Amino acid sequence: MVDRIAHQILEKTSGAAETVLLGIPTRGVPLARRLAARIATFEGAEIPVGVLDITLYRDDLRLQATRALGHTEVPPGGLDGRRVILVDDVLFSGRTVRAALDALKDLGRPRTVQLAVLVDRGHRELPIRADYVGKNIPTSIEESVRVSIAEHDGTDAVVIKNRGAQT
Amino acid sequence: MIKHLLSAADLDAAAATLVLDTAAEMASLAGREVKKLPALRGRTVVNLFYEDSTRTRISFEAAAKRLSADVINFSAKGSSVSKGESLKDTALTLQAMGADAVVIRHPASGAPHRLANWVEGSVVNAGDGTHEHPTQALLDAYTMRSRLKRLAGLNVAIVGDVLHSRVARSNVQLLHTLGAKVTLVAPPTLLPVGVGAWPAATSYDLDAVVPDSDVVMMLRVQRERMNQAYFPSEREYARRYGFDVPRMRRLPEHAIVMHPGPMNRGMEIAPEVADSPRSTIVEQVANGVSVRMAVLYLLLGGKA
């Protein structure tokens, strides 16, 4: 699936020049690193990878207990005038991406912003779509989609289950 | 997370570390073009200052503004306090205006604790009398950690007017929580009664403590709180407890010199020391904003 996204990116951006990958914690970060590695093997192009923590930009910040902050890391060279591709594991309501767009606006002015996700599960609540999708998985709103990444969870997997169901 | 920050003892090791880690993330904001985060949009922070202050008030104001909170500054001079309004009535006024957090500095020890019972929002102690100044301790710990990369096991000497120092009280509590070893160094007259019960060693001899110290924190001699003679003369005090160049030379290579400010140059700290690369005095002020942002975010950011 990551290969697929990498190829899509290379195809659509004709070689991924002037491109920066920004992973959204937690699982978007290792995904962005893997994508960059794949693109490097396919095309030989080194793509800078950064991290964009969106905690302080969430629209539900006030509805939950205080969250710990993640780390934001802008790759050397900055974001101004470049193509920024946001990377996340699951695209669901679109609220995370909205928060990421808000966070991005405080960091600089990219030429274009695109979105790559491993899984698009539907049920958008905002007018947001992904440019690169690993797999579209139509789901019911009752189901939950969990992506596990080896760097973070010890194994690579996408698990769909009924919410509230026993594991 | 806790609701109020009244004392450094309110924080256990995990909570204190969370504040320091959050502050480290907040510090990355300083390098950005847009130095603003939306986390506290629409929240109101009142700075209630009954005592003069430059650093702390400006630092809290900058911190709240960088988090997009609305800030109301109140100083006792020029307010109804000079007409005789009590702390409680002032508190109820603030309550009626819908303050989400009150940052209070007061000459009376314990005033923030009283205030916490009267208002619904969070109360942050920004220094109460000779009692506590928890955000100063947090920013000192943050400065030590960023310079020396650790806190556990550090030897910290806190030198000078411990008796009148809320900074010393908060620092002893917090550094003990975080695993550092604190030695208080002062003339016998400037050590408080009951200091034996504090989680810190004491000494009257600065020269004996200096060679083993990773951090030397000089305290201001608080002449405004001294109503009697605590030491024979300023020259004698500076000679025995002032931090001068020969003492700095006897420090270990990596050691740092701190001062919470404002300084009495030539009294507790020599100008050459204050302006040396070992001194973290200006750094402490910069770190103060990050640490106070972290405190305000952790107290106010989530669901009330």
Automatic annotation (TrEMBL), chain B:
EC number annotated for this UniProt entry: 2.1.3.2
Catalytic reactions of this protein: carbamoyl phosphate + L-aspartate = N-carbamoyl-L-aspartate + phosphate + H(+)
Principal EC category: transferase
Transferase is among the record's keywords: yes
List of residues binding carbamoyl phosphate: R55, T56, R105, H133, Q136, G261, P262
Domain Aspartate/ornithine carbamoyltransferase Asp/Orn-binding: 153-299
Pathway listed: Pyrimidine metabolism; UMP biosynthesis via de novo pathway; (S)-dihydroorotate from bicarbonate: step 2/3
GO terms of biological process kind: 'de novo' pyrimidine nucleobase biosynthetic process; 'de novo' UMP biosynthetic process; amino acid metabolic process
Location of the Aspartate/ornithine carbamoyltransferase carbamoyl-P binding domain: 3-145
Keyword Lipoprotein attached: no
Quaternary organization: Heterododecamer (2C3:3R2) of six catalytic PyrB chains organized as two trimers (C3), and six regulatory PyrI chains organized as three dimers (R2).
PANTHER family to which the protein is assigned, alphabetical: ASPARTATE CARBAMOYLTRANSFERASE, ORNITHINE CARBAMOYLTRANSFERASE, MITOCHONDRIAL
Family note: Belongs to the aspartate/ornithine carbamoyltransferase superfamily. ATCase family.
Function text: Catalyzes the condensation of carbamoyl phosphate and aspartate to form carbamoyl aspartate and inorganic phosphate, the committed step in the de novo pyrimidine nucleotide biosynthesis pathway.
UniProt protein name: Aspartate carbamoyltransferase
